[in-house]
Specification:
Elements: E1 3-7, E2 10-13, E3 18-25, E4 33-39, E5 46-51, E6 58-60, E7 66-71, E8 76-81, E9 90-97, E10 114-115, E11 119-124
Parallel strand pairs: 2-11
Antiparallel strand pairs: 1-3, 3-8, 4-5, 4-9, 5-6, 7-8, 9-10, 9-11
């Protein structure tokens, strides 16, 4: 079973930016769909953005301020977050699915096989 390790979280003020990274090991990374989720206290886990194995087709959720990308040579997926707001405060998780999760609903957490431990993002007003 592979592993995913997120980094790049932290505390920023409203309007700030962060770039999250997720490095994989033990996976054939270039075969996996990668998706970022987030979970705020007391709320359900929410899909933020997803990207196909080749990295040429991204999908974004309601937060158009976020951009997903990947570098298969580095086994890494990124989430660029701009103009952050307090409601973006959450633990951000990356996840991986070898079988195409998009046909079953890319936002369904049950479609993903491997999860990272999460990184905290806190946005203050």
């Amino acid at each position: 079973q592979g592993q995913l390790v997120e980094s790049g979280g932290g505390s920023v003020q409203t309007g700030g930016s962060l770039t999250l990274s997720c490095v994989s090991s033990g996976l054939t990374f270039s075969r996996y769909y990668m998706t970022w989720f987030r979970q705020a206290p007391g709320k359900e886990r929410e899909a933020v953005a997803s990207i196909n194995p080749r990295g040429d087709v991204p999908m974004h959720g309601s937060a158009a301020r976020f951009t997903i990308s990947r570098d298969n040579a580095k086994n890494t997926v990124y989430l660029q977050m701009n103009n952050l707001r307090p409601e973006d405060t959450a633990v951000y998780y990356c996840s991986a699915a070898e079988t195409n999760p998009w046909v079953r609903g890319w936002g369904r957490a049950s479609n993903y096989d491997v999860w990272g431990q999460g990184t905290q993002v806190t946005v203050s007003s």
